[in-house]
Amino acid sequence: MDPVCLTEFSVYLDHRPGELAGLHGAPRAAGVEMQSISTTEHMERGCVRIIGEPVDTLRRVCESLVESGVGPIVEAPVVAIPIDNRPGAVRDIAVLMSDNRINIRYVYLMPARGVNGSAKGDQGEGGNVRCVFRFDDLDKALAVIRDADWPPGAANGAANGNPQPGPADESGSAA
Q1: Alpha carbon distance 90, 85 (integer Å)
Q2: pLDDT tops 50 at residue 60
């Protein structure tokens, strides 16, 4: 599975009961399938990152939320990269980007989608998950990932959870 470019909406919310519930309700009522959600706190406000389909409908919902006082809302391109469920998998991508002088703004995990759209991985229950990255240089990051023939060492067993150690693996640290 190749990296996939997606559209993410970062919605900034006040810290009040019901804000997150309302944020989920509006896209659902409009028929948006939420594929991923990640929350964090930013400058005393909540930041909720949402990926959903159809994107145009989610965009319209976000625009209507701004009109009702929610926000700001930031739309950004992100990349979902399949990774093996193993220690160090996210670090491998971080090292690859560092070696190519590409900054990662943030990263979070999202479930893989099965052939029928279920949340199962492409290989069944134990299948790959996807890692969502926002890069400073999206085009360069995509080129590096494709040139690296991701996942690393797929031909020699890394795709099956047996990564080949390299200079960056000496610490033994996990993702």
Answers
A1: 9
A2: yes
